[in-house]
Specification:
With about 350 residues, the protein is mainly alpha-helical. Helices cover about 55% and strands about 5% of the residues. The protein is built from 17 helices and four strands. Strand 1 and strand 2 form a beta hairpin. It starts with 15 loop residues before the first helix and ends in a 5-residue tail after the last helix.
Amino acid sequence: MSDTSDTSDTADTRDTSATSDTRDASDTTGILDEALERLHTTGPERNGWLTNHAPMAVEALVRRGQARAVHRWLDHYAHKLEELPPAHRPVTADDWREALGDPARITDWTHFFARRLDGPEARPWREVLAEWWPRLLPGIAAGATHPVIRTGHAVRTLLTSDETAPRRAELAHALGYWAARSRPLPPLAPLAPAPSAAAALDAVPPVPRQDGGIRERLAQLTAFPQWGTAPDPDTAEERLIELVTAATHRYATHGHGEPIMLVHAATAPNAVLRALPALPRELWVPSLGAAWAAAAAVTAAYTPRDPLPYKKVVPTAEEVFERAAAHGDDHTIKFTDTALDVGDPLALAAAVRSVELNPPVF
């Protein structure tokens, strides 16, 4: 084991060849659509709160060349799936504010977005996303950030592969989940400005009581370092890349604080980054601010007091993802997918760390 590395240098080392990977677009097996159709009879949660990670994990598996593993993985995950909860009454354009943030209306919201993405009321999916993104963005941390992460996976698929009915339906499920769970963070006081994303994450004060679920932890938030602003859309994109890189790197040394939950400090802002190309440019700056709030909130809720060493020698990106797929844990698969987007050696080391820290499925 090596000494802990300095993760403050988060210049843009993002592997653009990884982010532009479109292997799922050349997948002619139909496995992703089959998996999504299989999953769309199930709800986004189980046991009243825990998230259904399957749609996100299978998208990552197909994206990274592991389509052959999808149905076996789903078979192992099936015991965690529950049926869609019952619908109550339709959400409409007139009363949606009343339904926003009501988890009992998850299926109502899913049907609302399904009507807007398919059928007589259908509009282009980018228009629907652009309309609802600013309405949902204040509640980005709700559902432990899973709704925005699911949205990011759905948008990536629509941007980089054929637009099919199951893929539009997946966006409806993701947006419906986000709308039903949407809840803003408590008011936050500004702390001293931070010069970089890595420094800002290091300066996030931990919540006083690091126990209980994420809702109890987020309720304790009081202040964040000043970071996450930008003068223009291009700078916002650059800083969002910096944030994803810094949060991914930080997992290598701090992931032990809570190995499952801390992956979201990276995967949530990466979901926002994946959505940027589908959004109007005027939404990029507020998207950066929301992504920073999500990453900082997860960091505050679960960060450990001290860093630990990590292994610096890592395999290739392909070998790292193969290891994550063989490991089978949904959070590990999704975090490794984000680490491959970043693409540098420290990001791959962080992915290996997630394989080591999280319990395997297979």
